[in-house]
Amino acid sequence: MNGVEKKTPSGLTALTNAWLGLVALTLVSLGLGQWFHGKPWLQLLVAALVWLKGHVVARRFIEVESCHPFIRRVVNGFVAVTPLALLGLAYFGAQLARWATL
Amino acid sequence: MSVVAISDRGASAETQAGWRIPGNKGIWVGISCEFVEFLVLFVVYFVSRAHFPEAFAEGGEQLSRLAGTTITLLMVSSSYCIACSVATLRAGRRRASLAWLGAGLVLALGYPLTKYFEFQWNLAHGITGDSGIFFTVYYYLTLNHLVHAVWGILGMLWVLARHLGGAYTVDDYSGLEALASYWHATDIIWLVLFSFFYVLV
């Protein structure tokens, strides 16, 4: 891929949609925490929302799809690590605590 | 949506294989280091939370979610404005690009301001770094992020001054795009911190 989208008004529309999506996801995640605090499946949902928000910033704002593979891997890897760690902590928290005990 | 090739001369570095490097290689060395630094800090968070799950379950309820939400909205909005600044400059609309960059800077300045009020609120409610493991980790990570955000704000001031001086054109905007990349990366990190401390799970 050797080209990028020229940012025309339609490009700004895509950025605006991404921004509105991020605002909505932020408010939704707050609401979920309030309404379903303590539910076992909430960790899964929060992890998914963390990944989705990072993915939107990476894809729409950084335009990571057209970036050099190293940059793409670094950004996508960073975006994926935290949700995976949140899930790992939710299901294997006690084991992690044992491993991390001096 | 039209797709056109952008000149690689000064716009954003382009490799022989045709992949883009937004901004320049130097900023991506910095961003990679920033990611590694925060991954280490995240390990601190996860290990602490694994050892003290109750403290982390209860700690978030004592923080100001209004402050956390405000900072999140400021960060994503500022990031959006900077992305629009790059987009409009690519489209040859320099004045619009300057306006978007200025708006991004104003919104970004709201972050340290909100953080100041949040820390005042914390102190008024007896929340300090000694209030427990959750709050020690909270101050450690969020203050670290604030430092990175201040670097980004200083970068915005520098890029805005250069932009006003006509340093960036439709063919050469690598400095603006480097700043944008750094700010988006800092935004991604904040979105993680928001879920760590302000979203109840």
Low-confidence stretches of chain B: 1-10
The rounded Rg of chain B comes to 19 Å
Largest sheet of chain B: 2 strands, antiparallel
Secondary-structure element sequence of chain A?
EHHH
- Distance between the first and last residues' Cα of chain A: 49 Å
- How many DSSP E strands of chain A? 1
Low-confidence stretches of chain A: 5-9
Strand order of the largest sheet of chain B: 2-3
Using CB atoms under 8 Å apart, which protein chain pair has the greatest interface?
A-B, 61 and 57 residues
What is the strand tally of chain B?
3
Task: Look at the structure and give the mean pLDDT of chain B.
Answer: 92
Choose one word for the global shape of chain A.
flat
Structure report:
The complex is a heterodimer of chains A (102) and B (201). Chain A has 102 residues and is mainly α. Helix content of chain A is 76%, strand content 2%. Chain A has helices spanning 9-35, 42-61, 69-99; one strand at 4-5. In chain A, α1 packs antiparallel against α2 and α2 packs antiparallel against α3 (69-99). Chain A is flat and about 50 Å long. Chain B is mostly helical and 201 residues long. Chain B has helices at residues 25-51, 53-62, 65-90, 94-124, 133-164, 174-197; strands at residues 3-4, 13-14, 20-21. Chain B is elongated and about 55 Å long. At the A-B interface, β1, α1, α2 and α3 of A face β1, β3, α1, α2 and α3 of B.
Key attributes of the depicted protein:
heterodimer, A: 102 residues, mainly alpha, 3 helices, B: 201 residues, elongated, disordered N terminus
Draw up the topology in text:
The complex is a heterodimer of chains A (102) and B (201).
Chain A lengths: L3 E2 L3 H27 L6 H20 L7 H31 L3
Helix pairs in contact in A: 1-2, 2-3
Chain B lengths: L2 E2 L8 E2 L5 E2 L3 H27 L1 H10 L2 H26 L3 H31 L8 H32 L9 H24 L4
Antiparallel strand pairs in B: 2-3
